[in-house]
Amino acid sequence: xxxxxxxFMGTPEIASESLSHIAELQKFNIIGLKSVxxxxxxxxxxxxxxxxxPVDKSARERGISVRTPQTLKNNIEEVNFLKSLDLDLIIxxxxxxxxxxxxxxxxxxxxxxxxxxxxxxxxxPSPIHYAILKRMKSSGVSIMALDAGVDTGxxxxxxxxxxxxxxxxxxxxxKLSLSGAFLLAEVIKTVFKLRINISQxxxxxxxxxxxxxxxTELIKSDELKVDFFFDDPLDIYAKTRAFTEAGGTFFVxxxxxxxxxxxxxxxxxxxxxxxxxxxxxxGESPVFDYCDYADYFPDALPQGIMPDIPAGxxxxxxxxxxxxxxxxxxxxxxLLKLKPEGKNVINYIDFINGFRIxxxxxxx
Length: 364
Known about the structure:
Helix content is about 25%, strand content about 25%. The chain has about 375 residues and is α/β, with parallel strands linked by helices. It folds into two domains: about 5-205, Rossmann fold; about 220-355, Formyl transferase, C-terminal domain (Methionyl-tRNA Fmet Formyltransferase, Chain A, domain 2, Roll). A seven-stranded mixed sheet has the order 5-2-1-6-7-8-9. Strands 10, 11, 12, 13, 14 and 15 form a six-stranded antiparallel sheet that branches. Helix 1 (about 15-25) packs parallel to helix 2.
């Protein structure tokens, strides 16, 4: 049986991981990659040079030709090139360019797309960020038949992935990249065996999800700020974990911005009010499909901490920890790594010593 003629389209690391798995299928004559499409190199101001995408680098290392069009809309040259390849499949993973209908119609068996969420939930450009922001305990990956809509095609396969209560964007991104690459390779093997148009496989998204679902948007810079005086501590912690790769959350200290690189949420085991809310007076924890305060018990504060502290106050600043109070009594943010404005990333001890942090100072 002849291999599938295919083109791969993708740009970031998650796409590079998928490309690596697909390249392995070439060794077994399951697929033949005719070309790889990725976004053009971007200027790196620090290095003063143009930087190729992870997919660009991965493809060239494997000797696969790379094409980097600025757009595919009304691009007759690329349409004619793709038509000349007698394609069976186009495979898309976080490409970053919209495929017009004249390209979607080219491959014999259709266009496969990997999306890092359990569609139709978390459609849009920021599904991994939103999974953490919504404090979800699980998300996953979906393989779908790409159509003209935004993440609306028929679902062909899905794989669920757990999210730890302390999971940061980078580790969840890696887990979903690996899970998605494996699942995508399995779907390609199935197309190879069955030789069927993928639009005739799977099921519509409307039948895949009985409840309501969320749409995601691009992360805006004004979302990165946190305010200990007003924000719910669960939201502060979720933003800290979600935005590490998008500039980092920050708070204001001594009229300067300080980025939070790493932190932990502390739920004091002595706070009866919070415990009763989370567990009930019988002490039995409810089951949430998202992380709540109950997931962070039990913790104990350092000795000598006063219980009734206003929000946004540094309540501890020594080797045992750097803790900030929040709007919830008994709930604190332990700052572990920070990046003061104009400085490098430092741990909390260097921050305390370098800035001579004192207990009782305010963090806005």
